[in-house]
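Support case: user asked for a sample of complex input and structure output to validate their parser. Sending the pair below.
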Amino acid sequence: MPRADRYRAVGTFGDIIGIYERNEMGTMAGRNSSRKLSVSKLKAIDELFQSKDWKIEFYGSMKNSQYQRFCERMAIFNEADQQFFLDMAACFHQILINDYLTHIWMAYSIIPNKILDEADKIIFSPLLEILSDGSRKNNSTKSSNALLYHMKGDKYDNANHNQKFEFMEDARKIKSKFTRKSVLIFIDDFIGSGKTAVDTVKSYRNFIPLLNSNNCIITSIVCQQAGQQTILEETQCRVEAKFIYNKAISDKFSGAILEAKLKQMSGMEKNVSKDIMEKGLHLGFEQTEALVCFQARSPNNTLPVFWFETETKMAPFPRARIFKSNQYE
Amino acid sequence: MNEDHRLLLLKILKSDGNIQPLADLGYEFAKITQAIKLEESLGNFRYKNGKFTFTKKGLREIALLTKHFKQKFPWIEPEHTSKIHPLKKDEIYIPDKESIRYLFK
């Protein structure tokens, strides 16, 4: 039964007008009675999408569009939380797949020439932890594999020292080719807490004794400042990224305001799903407080209010499509 | 958007109200945004500094649509106090003694 018809089963349009005249922001009988989104907030969302150059689809099925998802997420919050959500969204960064290569080569170009001049080989490898025998710890394909594949396929004519480039995924192969003069560059699209990077560098250092902090560099499209700090402290390796971002809340506010904002965010997370806290994703994995998504998929380090989806609540930048869109049909 | 729904939209716009009733009627938020932009381009309201100001044309439009609406539907307001609202998934209905008096004959 179409949604509109189902609504008529509990109230006619006359009822709606009637109720509406009594209470302008009033409650409605029906499924979404608890959801509220004022016209001015909808206008603010529209302006945000225009300023961010995010696409608003006005054709075809719009039920799953990013705009619909954004508005649906906003509607579950109260007015104060909606404003906070909008403020956070204004700082949100969406990296589009078409720009991946440009960004990663720009991150590479930050590496000082002095290091690369002296190298006999510049080996690129995905930032993935290995076991003591050099095999991959986790065999699933990660975004860093895809990024390496695209870099390999690129002409990289404009990149410095491109004649020295080698692209390898197998640590055993890297070990056999690596010399005292070689440089190993780990690549990834996102570094959050820095834990994966630290584990990867440590596992490679155990496997390739020639590796040290001078010939091992980590390059990423986006890196959280806290992650960069952790990597530097624990491995002394250089980390270069096109975008380096601060924590969305903790680095923006301080004192009593920070406490209030963190409390407000906890409330918003509870509003989305209690699972966020239970799964240890409060403020994002390892409390990273990131505000970034790649194409339309967010890393779990991003604030969960932007990506955590349930069967009944859709998210604007989901990691996995859990929401069941046919529930309204 | 038909005439009745347009009236609802204009009424919501006039008071910067909740647009969820329109979403519940099956309109996607993008469609609602488009309809709002259309009303603005028709000169029915102005939006400045987060405030909606209805023009004389807009107010006339609401009056006209209301007139049509009242002609179509007899204006008998439903008795809201008697309306039984559907329970949410996580709600438990506990009746008061008055409503289950018939059980204690």
